[in-house]
Every structure is written in structure tokens, then in C-alpha cells.
Amino acid sequence: MTDRANVITVKNISKTYHLGEIQVRALREVSLEIRQGDFLVVTGRNGSGKSTLLYQLGLLDRPEKGEIDFNGTEVIRLSDKHRRDLRLKKIGYIFQNYALIAELTALENVMLPAMMLISPLEAKKRAVDLMEKVGLSHRINHLTKRLSGGEQQKVAIARALVNDPQLIIADEPTANLDSIAAKDVMTIFQTLNQKDGHTIVMVTHEQEETVYANRTITLHDGAIV
After folding, report:
1. What is the pTM of this model?
2. N or C, which end of the chain is more exposed by having fewer CB within 10 Å?
3. Model pLDDT, residue 1
4. How would you classify the pairing of strands 215-220 and 199-203?
5. 31: helix, coil or strand?
6. pLDDT tens across 65-83, in order?
């Protein structure tokens, strides 16, 4: 079996939130490695630190302690600009609430991140191809607020892929979907991972969704158990 390079190496990261007089230790000395081609699912109860861990992996937040190596670069102490550039070029995000712009069409939502890096014409071509990939080529000109929840999440998946990221971060992507739409979305993730080789880290509360992953970790009170 060919060795796969690490995309992210996390060493002893900790994160504490200060809520007035109260301190909440969201992460406690967490260490893990995510390899190229992994489909890693993170499970745990509410408040266990799952989303906080994703924010660190996706460079949306910084821990107060530890190290995070992203593809050979230590990222915690990078400037905000360098972290933004890395996020735009290397990481795709899929959120529970879709995070789409309701007044734009599905195609325009997918194009947006790409237009920060390439021409509008090339961005449109990529977006059209990705909308076909997720099965929504017939909905490209519809406003996203006119789409069903499952369709909106497929648009969000296409948007996450538009800059060909090295890592896909998905925070409870099926939480607002019915069982049929959720299975459809998970099948897309499975194809992206197994056929296309995308590295995916996903948080879920749904135990049945762990079968799509090749690795699962569980957090409890901010630590991997």
C-alpha cells in the first residue's frame, strides 16, 4: 500500500472560551493526523468540541496552544492575510445552514470563490461543470432561496469544490435535511472521496453516516476518546 502524505498534522492543540467569569475548555491537548484521501468523521455529544476542532482545521480560528501543520506549513502563527489565502485556495467549506446568498442564482453562488482567483468566464465554466456533477444542471439559473434544502446543500458542495481544494470541511451538512436528501448528499461525499480522491473532514450526529468514512474519531469534553 502506498503511503499517503499528511494534509494536516495537529499536535496538542487547546482552546478555551472565556464567557465572563466562566471558562469553557472546548479542546484539550488534541492531536491527530489527516492523510491525503481520508474521509474522517468526527462524532460526539453537543458541546464536546466538534465544531471548535473544525474551526481550527479550517483556519477559521486559532488555538491558544499547540501546533497545526497544513501541507508542510505551520499555520497558527501565519498572518491573517496568509491564512485567508490558504483558506481560499486550499480549503472548501460546507455548513449546516448552507451559507448561500439568497439573492444570487445557484450558479452565481458557486462562481463567487473562483472569481477571486480566476476570470469570470473560467469561473462560470467550472461552476457549470460542478453543478452538473452534483446533479443540478437544470437549476443553475434559479435563486437559491427558491431551492429545496437538499438542493441548496448540493449548491454549497459545488461551491466548496470550485477552487479544487486540498481539504473539504463539512460541519453537520445533513442536519437540516430529510433522510432522502441526507442520503443523497452523503452519496456525493462518498463519490468525491472514493472516486475523486478528495480529503474530507465531517462532523455529524448521525451514527449511520459513519459508514461512509474510512476513519472516525469521537470527542468528549474537548478530548479524543
Report:
1. 0.93
2. N
3. 42
4. unpaired
5. strand
6. 999 999 999 999 999 999 9
